[in-house]
Design goal:
The complex is a heterodimer of chains A (about 375) and B (about 140).
Chain A (H helix, E strand, L loop, with lengths): L8 E5 L3 H13 L3 E5 L2 H8 L6 E5 L7 H11 L4 E6 L4 H9 L4 E4 L4 H61 L5 H32 L8 E2 L1 H13 L8 E6 L6 E2 L2 H17 L6 E9 L2 E8 L6 H4 L23 H11 L3 E7 L3 E9 L9
Chain B lengths: L5 E5 L3 H13 L3 E5 L2 H11 L3 E5 L7 H11 L8 E5 L21 E4 L4 H12 L1 H12 L2
Parallel strand pairs in B: 1-2, 1-3, 3-4, 4-5
Helix pairs in contact in B: 2-3
The chains are: A alpha/beta (about 375), B alpha/beta (about 140).
Amino acid sequence: MPIPPAEYLIFVIDDDEIIRISCEQILRKSGYKVETFENGYVGIERLKQVRPPLLVVDIKMPELDGFEVIKIVRKIDPDVVIVVITGYATIETAVDAMKMGAYDFLPKPFTPSELRLIIERGLERWRLAQEAKLARKEKEEVERKFVTLVSHQLKAPLGAVKQYLDVLLYRCRDQLPEETVQWISRSQARISEMVSLIQDWLVMAKLDRGAVCDRNASTDVGKIVESVIGEYRQLPSAEKLTLSTDIAAGMPPACGDAASLSMLIGNLVSNAVKYNKPGGEVVVRAAAADGWITLEVSDTGLGIPASFRSHLFEEFYRVKTAETQNIPGTGLGLVICKRIADELGGSIEVDSKEGEYSKFTVKLPAAETVQEAE
Amino acid sequence: MSEPKTVLMIDDDSDFVTAVQALLESAGYKVRSAANGRDGLQLAKTLQPDLVLLDVMMSERTEGFFVLQEMRRVPALSNTPVIVMSSIYSDEPVFRVDPEAGWLPASLFLAKPVEPAKLLAEVKRLTSPSEAFAAAAERKQP
């Protein structure tokens, strides 16, 4: 819905008093509110207090010129529409100004109707941008709810089926033929596989939306590692393995939120456990140097054949060998790890020797050690 | 043998209720159920169950949470142990809900589906008199 012109505030920044006065008179007559400034500094100061949809600025001014003003204004308010006034109607200066984010230019001298026309078009542009922004926000909100809802709707029926099978086996295991027990167990495993897939898909959707990975947060990686390893030590799947950690003392926190880092480290440890051999080891090391946190998750397991390694971080890619074919997985775990590492400004690499070991190395930027006052 | 303990299930998934009810009944519990938050709350007030198993997402996305908050306002139900169960959560280590995020007055969170032995153990623990007393005392502390 278009707002009536009187609602609009327009800034005019020009060192020429005559231009300021004439612009103010013309625009006020059209019903706009106008504030004028004799130089860029005062205009920018005022912009920090009120946000006009449109700003008219002269290119050639002493001290701070129009280009400088555009640069600073864009940082404060990326949405404001900027029209430049130029005394030298050369294409070059106009193009330069537009390149820097000005919407249009007005060569001096100009008539009142030329000014009005360009202001009207500029405001229309601002209106459309605002509407688009609002629509985008609404769409994101709908998507967010949709993803949670869909994942619940997908998981709930699977949960009910699995619950039946769980209770069935719990109550009647002894009365059922061995083959039936086996088939029920397989059904349970396949359902769990599907649930993991939905879980991972949900994380991927969140990553796509930018809803995971807070770069501005800082997290103690050592604490996350200890907690993840602590949880795995209690799992039956890690029973025959030795899980250990080696965390350097006095490490600075890493960039990123605890949830994302838990997911990243959890996925890597999960793989190290899954693709291990009985009696094998899983070691997680963390150390800091030169503003980076280096995290290593290594195992003494099956290793990754060289030909598979370059595909490891592709969606739904799984290493298919005789040894891995019965190990459940979604093919999204490492994709999620890479996405999280990338989003946090870090990287992930793999080193492996078939039949001997795999080692994943994650580098994350260390967070600023100076704690901001709360 | 003392009176059988009563468990109230508030859940809109009738299959899930059937399966869990069968499990609990075979272990000697008396089970009643309600398919939405309003009926569940009503039933809880008249039944005074020893334990409530509460779903989260029913007709409203966070219906279970409202039921829980409402329960805590009713004096007779304010100390009843509640297990919140949802398929939103998963007990895979990677995605576990942080137990320190204790912003809801529930005794326990469990992911659906739940391992029968685990559920029975938790139900037994939460309905044993000493535990119920301890849980109530803990909640009363500031």
